[in-house]
Design a protein that fits this description.
Belongs to the glycosyltransferase group 1 family. Glycosyltransferase 4 subfamily. This is Glycosyltransferase family 4 protein. InterPro entries: Glyco_trans_1, Glyco_trans_4-like_N. Keywords: Glycosyltransferase, Transferase. The protein is an alpha/beta fold. It has 15 helices and 13 strands. The chain folds into 2 domains: about 170 residues, 3-Layer(aba) Sandwich (Rossmann fold); about 190 residues, Rossmann fold (3-Layer(aba) Sandwich), CATH 3.40.50. Helix 2 links the parallel strand 2 and strand 3. Helix 1 runs parallel beside helix 2. The radius of gyration is 22 Å and the shape is elongated. It has a 7-stranded parallel beta sheet, sandwiched between helices.
Length: about 375
């Protein structure tokens, strides 16, 4: 079979879903695949594909993509591409149309978001009927997919996301690590409690701030500093109104000197080296990429006991707390902040778990097996 695939992501956003094609394409290439991309002109997805050494086809909009289906079919034929892989449910309309016009194509779809309502009306039965296989990025999302999609269980497969652990291995000298902590406003000797992600209500930053206030009250002698990592503007994917609310609440609670808003950081693997505890209080993560990134960095993680996060964290790698219970988060953070030996043990266990179960190499091997099986 042709070892060529086109990844389709017609999105103007920028999050884990949009980053996915450019993250996996280099690994696909290393495993002998020729990858192509289709993206919206001027989008960050298109730019990321260029950075991954792919010159993507671009269209002005999803509607224009449908109008240019003839051009797309000619491109697929000219390059002998027989596998299409979509990443947004709205792109399935295009993928299904291409398969309808050229039945020899195989169509794959990764549900990055976790479907929340049934999709069994006539349109979705047609679109999903053209899909060879749906990838669910966690068992939590797979169960939702089984209930929502008009497909038999054999065409819905769990395939955990993965990362390359190597960039997350510590590499800073102690002098550089201390300089990084100083730049974040961390007092000497303080335990650094970090939270990374888009600043939007569903990511749990508000609860985290309330929990930090509780930590200060319950453990007045404990030296700690909070670091909130994430873009502060709409252009960086965050809610500016919510960011303003967080700043206001931090001031009201008297935490202005103990919480740093670090903004968007492209150097997250290095930033993890400045942290001692990483918190992920998101209410409904379909997977939890930040969780495994922090685990790969050897950090003790406190995660929400909802969504897919409990599939990633166990008692040997971190702690879980309800995403609506600031007292539970206060206690989990207090336990870890007060015990450096426990943090080290959990971090070592976390790093080993990522290497065993959540690597990019293993993820792409799963993709490759599915692509090949589709032709057997």
């Amino acid at each position: 079979m042709s070892r060529k695939v086109m990844h389709i992501c017609l999105s103007n956003g920028w999050g884990g879903l949009e980053m996915y094609p450019s993250r996996i394409i280099p690994e696909l290439r290393r495993q002998g695949w020729e990858a192509h991309g289709l993206a919206l002109a001027g989008s960050r997805v298109a730019a990321s594909l260029v950075e991954a050494d792919i010159t993507p086809l671009t269209v002005a909009s999803r509607g224009k993509a449908l109008l240019k289906v003839g051009r797309l079919l000619k491109y697929l034929k000219a390059h002998d591409i027989r596998i299409l892989h979509c990443h947004k449910s709205s792109d399935l309309r295009l993928g299904a149309l291409l398969v309808t016009l050229r039945p020899s194509l195989r169509l794959f779809f990764t549900d990055h978001m976790g479907v929340t309502r049934p999709k069994k009306d006539p349109y979705h039965r047609w679109a999903y009927g053209k899909v060879t296989l749906v990838f669910s990025i966690s068992e939590t999302t797979r169960q939702r997919n089984l209930a929502a999609f008009p497909l038999p269980p054999g065409r819905i497969r769990r395939l955990y996301l993965g990362i390359d652990p190597a960039p997350y291995a510590p590499r800073l000298t102690e002098t550089k690590r201390q300089a990084l902590r100083d730049s974040l406003g961390v007092p000497p000797g303080a335990v650094v409690i970090g939270l990374a992600g888009r600043l939007t209500p569903g990511k749990g930053q508000g609860l985290w701030i309330e929990a930090l206030a509780g930590l200060a009250e319950r453990h007045p002698a404990l030296a700690w500093h909070g670091v909130l990592i994430g873009g502060l503007t709409a252009a960086e994917g965050s809610s500016e109104a919510f960011v303003a609310e967080l700043h206001e609440r931090v001031a009201e609670l008297g935490l202005a000197e103990r919480v740093t808003f670090a903004g968007f950081r492209a150097d997250l693997p290095r930033l993890f080296e400045a942290l001692d505890i990483v918190c992920v209080p998101s209410r409904n993560e379909a997977f939890g990429l930040t969780v495994i990134e922090a685990m790969a960095a050897g950090k003790a993680v406190v995660g929400a006991n909802s969504g897919a996060i409990p599939e990633l964290i166990d008692e040997g790698t971190g702690r879980l707390a309800a995403p609506d219970d600031p007292l539970a988060w206060r206690d989990a953070m207090g336990e870890l902040a007060g015990d450096a030996t426990l943090r080290q043990c959990l971090g070592e266990g976390a790093r080993e778990k990522v290497s065993a179960h959540f690597t990019l190499n293993a993820h792409v091997q799963g993709l490759e097996r599915a692509y090949i099986d589709a032709w057997e």
